[in-house]
Amino acid sequence: MTQNRLVWLSAIGATVLLLSILGLGTESSVTAGLLDSLGLGGDDEAAVEHPPVPAEYKDKHMPTGWWTDPKAIEEGRKIYMGLVDPEVKCAKCHGEDGKPVKAGARDFRQGKRMDTYEDSFWFWRISEGVPKTKMKAWKDKLTEEQRWQVMAFEHTFSHGGKPEPHTHAQQAKR
Ligand code: HEC
Question: 94: CA distance to ligand 1 center in Å?
Fold first, then answer.
């Protein structure tokens, strides 16, 4: 008898747990939807939380002044367009004007999202790629210098094609 009761109790307990997990899931997407409809959530993308930057990339930072350096940006443009190495052609997926041409490729024109990219995070992604996506690692094809250059160029897409310093809350936090 008592054992039967125990089984029942734990079954109920498990159900409650499951329901609350499911409930939480819906609740948060409902909240996001609400915020969006109020125009407070920004684009969904901007709300994304980034995975932590691995230790070996944490201390990597854009060389001083390169976000706006015309030479660095021009070198980056050539890399991005595949003019330096035809095998490295970011434009093939991300588009010549930053408007993705391959489904799922990151849209660099989304300023709100790109503002959340710390330089070390961005550099890490270019270096190591994004697992289980078409975005592969470029560290064997691009020197560190070239990776910073291509980043400086990519960054102009979120500023109407113009160089801008990349300063924002995320960066100030480190
Ligand atoms: C074969 C297609 C392809 C090519 C070529 C490509 N990418 Fe990507 N890239 C993607 C896709 C797909 C994603 C989205 C991955 C994801 O879901 O986070 C992405 C994402 C990114 C991101 C954002 C990563 C993140 O976590 O949000 C950066 C930065 C990036 N690419 C830079 C580059 C650079 C620089 C090059 C050229 C050296 C390049 N990509 C070439 C497909 C490509």
Answer: 7
Query: How close is the Cα of 106 to the center of ligand 1, in Å?
Result: 6
Distance CA 71, CA 98 (A): 19
Structure confidence at residue 168 (pLDDT): 62
Burial class (CB in 10 A: 0-12, 13-18, 19+), 117: buried
Q: Which of 56, 74, 73 is nearest to 65 (CA)?
A: 73
Q: Which residues contact 123 (CB under 8 A, 6 or more apart)?
A: 57, 60, 62, 147, 148, 151
CA 161/CA 156 separation, integer angstroms: 5
| pLDDT tens figures, 48-102 | 689 999 999 999 999 999 999 999 999 999 999 999 999 999 999 999 999 999 9
For ligand 1, mutation pick of 57, 106, 143 (most atoms within 8 Å of CB): 106
Q: Which residues contact 85 (CB under 8 A, 6 or more apart)?
A: 79, 141
Check if the beta carbon of residue 63 is closer than 8 Å to that of residue 148.
yes
Whether 148 and 168 have beta carbons less than 8 Å apart is answered as no
